[in-house]
Each structure stands twice: as C-alpha cells, then as structure tokens.
Amino acid sequence: MNEPMSSARELFEEDLKTALEAAARAYDRKRFVVVGSASILASFPDAPGYLRLSADIDMFPIRKLKTETFKPGDDLVGQASPFESENDFYVERVGDWTMLSQPEGWLERCVKFEVGEITGYCLDPIDLAYNKTEAGRQKDIDFVAGMINEGIISREELEAFIHERCPHPDLLPNVLKHYALVCAGLDEV
Predict the structure, then answer these.
(1) Residue 184 pLDDT > 60
(2) Second label for 46, Cα 20 to 30 Å away, from 39, 52, 124, 162?
(3) What InterPro entries does its record include (predicted)?
(4) Distances (CA, A) of 165 to 39, 47, 152, 168
(5) Is-contact 150 47, C-beta < 8 A?
(6) How many Cα atoms within 13 Å fall on the side-chain side of residue 147?
(7) Angle CA(83)–CA(121)–CA(92) in degrees, nearest 5?
(8) Tens-place pLDDT, residues 16-47
(9) How far apart, in whole angstroms, are the C-alpha atoms of residue 43 and residue 152?
C-alpha cells in the first residue's frame, strides 16, 4: 500500500507549470482541466498562502485516457510517485465526473494557463467557489470563506451565481445550506 509522502504546502505558479509538464509526459496529453484549490494559481498566483496550501494538484485530461494509459501515468506523477518525492506534491488525476454538477459554461469561463504547447484550463474563481460550496466539506467551506475574505470573489457574487446557475433544482437546497456555512465563517468587518 502506498503511504502518502507529502503534507500540504504552499503551491506556487511554478508548481502548476511543473505539474502540467509532468502530466503531459505521463499521460501523453496536452490539454488538462485543473480543478480544486490549485486552480486559483492561474488567476491569483499571489493569493495568500493558506489559499495555496495543498499536497496535490487535481486535474484531468480533456481527452479521455485508456486504462492502459492512466495507470502508468498515475505511477509517474501520482501519490507516492517519483514526481512527489522530487516536488513535495503530486498530481491527483481526477475524472471529468468531478464537473458533472458544475453550472453550464464552466469550461468557457476557465482561465487558460499555457506552458508551451500544454494548456491547463483552470477553474474561474467563481466556478471554483461554487464547486467547493457544493462539495461542502469543512476544508471547502473554509476555502470559500477565505476567497471572500480576501476579496477574490464577493459574497453577493457567489450567492447570485448559486441562485442563477445551479444546474439541478434538487441540488439547490444543499448548496444553499453549504453557502450559509461559508457565510458563518466570514470575517466580520
């Protein structure tokens, strides 16, 4: 069993570049969607360190991988890989399923992060905030509250986005419940 090697650390724009280059070699792809907290590196590379804290960069290739392609790639750049040993973070290959309940137009709103011929489509901050609010884990709630506290997005912008763009009416009550938790975690000014 592979034991986790890295603990969360501050990630930087250079780390995103390194991850995309390594993923391109490992998976033989040139276009990736970057989700999770590290996607903030494309739009706010100088975000406060606590918003750039992670042990991994979550991404998936835009074109699907065959099983015989993704497993060897995971071994090269994933958790407990030589890449993790060298860089002190790893690439977490997630699936496009992570975006199934994301509001329409998310890909068009992505912030392009280009490294030569490789492109990372990083979630726009409002889509990142929505995605984390929907997930609703405590670390996600804290992250979104941090984005609002730091002025990366506004509380009003996120609330309007949730009401106008939530793609499934049955998801809305839960997303709003999580949004209320985000609001409870905001610094009072």
Answers:
(1) yes
(2) 162
(3) DUF6036
(4) 20, 26, 19, 9
(5) yes
(6) 33
(7) 30
(8) 999 999 999 999 999 999 999 999 999 999 99
(9) 9
40's tokens: 């903030």
The yes-or-no verdict on residue 65 having pLDDT over 70 is no
CA–CA separation, 135 vs 46, rounded Å?
25
Domain boundaries, the chain: 9-123, 126-184
Structure tokens at 43: 């739009």
Tokens of 63: 């074109």
What does the pLDDT read at residue 159? Answer: 98
Q: Please, is 149 exposed, middle or buried when counting C-beta atoms within 10 Å of its C-beta (0-12, 13-18, 19+)?
A: middle
Alpha helices in the chain (DSSP H): 13-27, 40-43, 67-77, 82-87, 106-109, 125-135, 138-149, 155-165, 172-184
Percent of the chain with pLDDT over 70: 95
Closest CA to 167 of 120, 119, 115, 102: 102
Residue 11 and residue 89 in contact, taking contact as beta carbons nearer than 8 Å: yes
pLDDT confidence of residue 2: 46
Residue 154 has pLDDT above 70, yes or no: yes
SS3 category, 118: strand
Reading the block at residue 101, the tokens are 């309940």
The model's pTM is: 0.92
